[in-house]
Design a protein that fits this description.
By secondary structure, the protein is an all-alpha fold. It is built from 8 helices and no strands. The chain has one domain. 80% of the residues lie in helices and 0% in strands. The protein is globular and about 50 Å long.
């Protein structure tokens, strides 16, 4: 989910700038916040649909039991979309072209895969790498996924991870919005 939302959000805005259509959008009565949301919402919906599709495949094709609440899982997945979309937006404000956006996204995605516990158990990592994993939103989302799918955990056990996703989302979206407004000015 992170890969789709980060890459597509970053590419969409950079592509608008490359083609010169961003300037056309700026002369319309749309406010910068509306423009920013208009670029993020479709990719948020796409990420959410992707999550639903993966859950359906996981459950009905691979037969993986879902021990916890589907509603809680979808709600907390939405929380994970916020920092992912924010990262994509931030990349789009820094990158000059799509190639740069791709490289910057890769710079975020690769550590997310390696340090979050997705590929390797975090407990087996060197101490520095273990603590760097706490700087990645996907680390907290993986804890949520494992908690709900494997253990049937509820919000009472997952609230620290949910709070971390909210904090990441708020901080990244504020920084991204500020850069977006500055870039438009």
């Amino acid at each position: 989910m992170q890969n789709i939302t980060v890459l597509l959000t970053a590419f969409a805005i950079v592509r608008e700038r490359e083609r010169g259509t961003m300037e056309q959008l700026l002369v319309t009565p749309i406010r910068p916040l509306g423009l920013m949301l208009g670029k993020m919402v479709p990719y948020g919906v796409l990420g959410f649909v992707e999550t639903c599709l993966v859950l359906v495949i996981m459950r009905f094709i691979f037969g993986v039991p879902l021990r916890g609440s589907v509603v809680l899982l979808l709600g907390l997945s939405f929380l994970f979309l916020l920092p992912s979309l924010g990262i994509g937006l931030f990349i789009s404000t820094v990158a000059e072209n799509q190639a740069q956006a791709y490289q910057m996204a890769f710079f975020i995605i690769l550590p997310s895969i390696l340090l979050s516990g997705f590929m390797f158990p975090r407990e087996a990592m060197p101490t520095v790498m273990y603590y760097l994993g706490f700087l990645l939103p996907v680390t907290y989302f993986l804890d949520i996924l494992r908690g709900i799918i494997l253990r049937g955990a509820g919000l009472a056990h997952l609230w620290p991870d949910a709070l971390a996703l909210v904090a990441f989302g708020v901080v990244i979206l504020i920084l991204s919005a500020a850069r977006f407004h500055k870039r438009l000015a």
